[in-house]
Amino acid sequence: RVSELAVALARDYGWNEVRLKEMEIACLFHDVGKLKISDAILHKKGRLDPDEWTEMKKHPEYGAEILEKAPTLGKFIPAVRHHHEWYDGSGYPDGLSGDAIPLAAAMISLADAYDAMMSDRPYRSAMSTEHVLQIIRENGGRQFHPDLTTIFLRIVERQLERDDTASA
After folding, report:
1. Helix or strand or coil: residue 41?
2. From CA 11, how far away is CA 111, in angstroms rounded?
3. H or E segment and range at residue 81
4. Comparing C-alpha atoms, which of 54, 100, 53 is closest to residue 78?
5. Between the chain's N and C termini, which has fewer beta carbons within 10 Å?
6. Higher pLDDT, 101 or 166
7. Is the pLDDT of residue 143 over 90?
8. Interatomic CA distance for residues 97 and 59, integer angstroms
């Protein structure tokens, strides 16, 4: 789901077929670092305590370390390492901001956040589409790249319109 959304965003942004394929692959790897996070943390039903949260926030770095072991996967490291950076600089692991965040990472960030909020998690139920879109709208320019946010919202709204038309 993350890959489909991020590729749609990259397509609407104007990326060519080669870059779209690279986006698809980067999305498949974006959470590979969670392999190094304990199942107790990954599947915890309640909120993570501060130490658990600190460990969870290392998964982008762990993912980059895993990809470094395969030289042919090196081009995906920036997207994997930086998909939790925030446009305003308050994300992790490096506190990058604005255009310093690799574009692929910024696209994955939007798709990943949308998918996470739309999905049931061990610690909460899925949110409504309207609520998720409102959160994304409110966080454009703060958490998310503002131009990408506008494009992403258009993509989701088009999908919702198609779904409504198909079910009518």
Report:
1. helix
2. 13
3. helix 77-81
4. 100
5. C
6. 101
7. yes
8. 19
> Is residue 60 reached through a cis peptide bond, with omega within 30 degrees of 0 on the bond before it?
no
pLDDT at 168: 67
Mean of per-residue pLDDT scores for the chain = 95
Each residue's pLDDT tens digit, 131-140: 999 999 999 9
Residue matched to tokens 């993912």: 63
Q: What are the backbone angles phi and psi of residue 102, rounded to the nearest 5°?
A: -55, 135
Is-contact 130 160, C-beta < 8 A?
A: no
Q: Looking at 34, 44, 57, 58, which residue is catalytic?
A: 34
Q: Which residues on adjacent β-strands are paired with residue 140?
A: 144
Single out the residue of 101, 97, 89, 91 nearest to residue 57, CA to CA.
91
Segment (H or E) for 54: helix 50-56
- Nearest one of 143, 79, 138 to 110, comparing CA atoms: 143
* Cα dihedral across residues 80, 64, 37, 20: positive or negative: positive
Q: How many residues does the chain have?
A: 168
Q: Does residue 34 have an active-site annotation?
A: yes
Per-residue burial over 38-52, b if 16 or more Cβ lie within 10 Å, else e, is: eeebeeeeeeeeeeb
